[in-house]
Amino acid sequence: MIWDEKYECMDREQLRELQSERLREVVDRVYNKVPFYRQLFDREGIKPGDIKGVEDLSKLPFTTKDTLRGNYPYGLFAEPLSKIVRIHASSGTTGKPTVVGYTKKDLDTWAELIARIVVQAGATEEDVVQICFGYGLFTGGFGLHYGLEKLGTTIIPASIGNTRRQIMLMEDFATSVLVSTPSYALYMAEVLQEMGVERESLKLRLGLFGGEPWTESMREQIKSKWDITATDNYGLSEIIGPGVSGECLEFKGLHISEDHFIPEIIDPETGESLDFGEEGELVFTALTKEAFPVIRYRTKDISILWDQPCSCGRTTARMKKVTGRTDDMLIIRGVNVYPSQIESVLMEIKGVAPHYQIMVERKGHLDNMEVKVELEEELFTGSFRDLEAVEKKIKSGLNSVLGIDVRVKLVEPKTLERTEGKSKRVIDKRELTDS
Amino acid sequence: MKVNQLSVFLENKSGRLARVTKVLGENEINIRALSIADTTDFGILRLIVSKPKEAYSILKSEGFVVSETEVIAVCIPDKPGGLGGVLAILEAAQINIEYLYAFVGNTHTKNALVIFRVEDCDRAVEVLKEKGVQVVKEENVYSM
Fold first, then answer.
1. Is B76 on the interface with A (CB under 8 A)?
2. What is the CATH number of the domain that holds A207?
3. ipTM higher than 0.85?
4. For B76, left (φ over 0), alpha (ψ -120 to 50), or beta?
5. How far is B137 from chain A (nearest CA, A)?
6. Interchain CB distance below 8 Å, B9 and A412
7. Which tens digits make up the pLDDT trace of B62-95?
8. How far apart are CA A372 and CA A283, in angstroms?
9. Which H or E element spans position A18?
């Protein structure tokens, strides 16, 4: 089913015209209503009239997370607080959070966008949906909530925490759709096993996962542990929250609601725009937001865009599932390493749990990377030879993918830190004073 | 004739071994023999205990990674050349030994108890008995 055929299946020429029209409007709006953008455009010598359409997009400067921090808390709002009905903020791992606002119309738009992505993932009004995202400043909980309500599903606003209780609710309330981060879904599967709850006693059939980058191999783990369809959706509070894009059941990328957002891929080093099919950093311009319009926001997420129509019937551009971020990238002895690469190696090795942690240290002038991997109980035979064989297999797998020597350390199951939100995969202990 | 040995995977961090012994102690399980083999990163603790089945499930429920392995226990005269004789029998029969550990302190019998992990337990038992070596019954090991 398609929630909004008019926009999701729009002819791409027509869509481009619509985007151009909306881009002109939003550029005009930010210039007139947000002092920061007026100053920025003036400094760059850009007049709103210079932007005639999508083809002029690359003339505009980028907005970054630092821009948001620098205008904390309300500096980038384009509407007075009297028109703003909701505030959300993203977790500030360093210092202050980044704050976003929504008008009534923005909340309507948001719910529409969520309805689109949950419908394309296969949810229907018959479904009982358990939302295991925090209801709070984080956009996940409320975002999914109103969109699913718009569709007419039965919502269990379970929020986060108390995993055993979550599973009890899932069993008793006959939950058919789970909304959570993918790492929490894996954690829940472990608790499910511990509790001895039979899979057959659950009605779960579909997972709507988002909130953090995850790999295809993690999807396979979720599918095999839960026996459900596992879909990805994407969004970030700076753009609107979840609902920016989501997978359809063709699993050929995430459809972006291009009538509301213009996606771009840029080279993260040079800022240069890249073509469809090329990998780089995702950048979004929010076309229709009233309270918090952003121009060319750099997401730091790495992806690829495709513009060919999808076999599901939608014509909107698709983005490749995000598996890494430009700031996740570790440079180990001059080699670029993404945690997702390590994860994909581990997932292919039998007997290794999908739980790992990467530790980077500098000894003398050399970077040392150690990967701690939890041993699956079934694998332990009591023999040294077998354990060493696993270690060796991981080591050589990592070595061939990364091209560097990695120390592998097997650890006892369930000893690495688990979180109910996003997982902490990397601990970088290097102290770099000269950067 | 085959003795049930428990192997426990231990990360090399303080307190893990103490935790194993504490859990067993609290459950009135006696350790009959033990050995630890380790690398820099992890160790494997091998245990012969009074109640192996019970110990297995207790350790598992405490979150340890445990596996059960069949080993044989051989009683060897506590005198020079005692172990050598047994090894020679196994070698002649081309039975490979993965590891072994020994206990001398059995004061009643003046014998040493040696635990063998070999490739083929059944054949090892057969060969040793044929040559008159005393292979100890599992119940006698557990209740030593």
1. no
2. 3.40.50.12780
3. no
4. beta
5. 22
6. yes
7. 889 999 999 999 988 878 888 899 999 999 999 9
8. 34
9. helix A12-33
